[in-house]
Amino acid sequence: MLKRRLGFFVVCMLLILGVFPVCSMVTEKSITDFGNSPDPKAQATTDHFSDSIVIITGKSQTVASSALWLFGFKCMVIKRVTIQANNLEGEKINVFVLPPTIGLYFDYESISIQLNRVTGLFFWGKQSVLFESEPPQIVAVCRARDIWVTYE
Questions:
Q1: How many domains does the chain have?
Q2: Dist. CA 94–CA 106, nearest whole Å
Q3: Distance between CA 55 and CA 39 in Å, rounded?
Q4: Is 27 among the domain residues?
Q5: Which of 7, 41, 63, 86 is most buried, taking the most CB atoms under 10 A from its CB?
Q6: Is residue 28 a part of any domain in this protein?
Q7: Residue 6 domain-assigned (yes or no)
Q8: Does the residue 74 lie in any domain?
Q9: How far apart are CA 95 and CA 2, in angstroms?
Q10: Residue 94 belongs to what domain range?
Q11: Lowest mean pLDDT, pick from 28-32, 83-87, 109-113, 124-128
């Protein structure tokens, strides 16, 4: 039953993103601007979660993983993923971590989410030809063994 609901949620989110693209201000930045992440701040806080379901939405220029993207989609099994928002214009991420421990992070502009041993479905607009926006949209619904959320 949970898998059906999760599948229905993912399909609905992808349809919403396709029909109602999120408008954002497009700015001209060089590739070197995106490669230079700001230095980590001393006040950053890190929260750790184990064996949880994670739902991530928002806009991010930085998503790192070893799996290949297919038209912006990625279905992963036992991989490592890092998603970051680096205080660039328009970047914001929402993270929902569900039981056994609950974590809610809304509209963070400087956040890093590291997922280890993750299984789930990911969509990233930077790798998609259909849903282009600046910065690219990210939608992820997955289960992870270890989750580290670092934010300011």
A1: 1
A2: 5
A3: 26
A4: no
A5: 63
A6: no
A7: yes
A8: yes
A9: 19
A10: 2-21+45-151
A11: 28-32
Amino acid type, 29: K
**pLDDT, tens only, 34-72:** 444 445 555 789 999 999 999 999 999 999 887 778 878
Beta bridge partners of 144: 52, 118
**Given pLDDT bands bounded at 50, 70 and 90, which one contains residue 11?**
low
Contact (CB, 8 A) for 76 and 65:
yes
Does the pLDDT of residue 32 top 50, yes or no?
Answer: no
Report the predicted TM-score, pTM, of the whole model to 2 decimal places.
0.71
**pLDDT single digits (tens) 89-130:** 999 999 999 988 899 999 999 999 999 999 999 998 888 877
Q: What is the DSSP string of the chain?
A: -HHHHHHHHHHHHHHHHHHSPPP-------HHHHH-PPPPPTT-EEEEEEEEEEEEEEE-SEEEESSPPBTTEEEEEEEEEEEEEES-TT-EEEEEE-TTS-EEEEEESEEEEEEEEEEEEEEEGGG-SSS--SSPEEEEEEEEEEEEEEE-
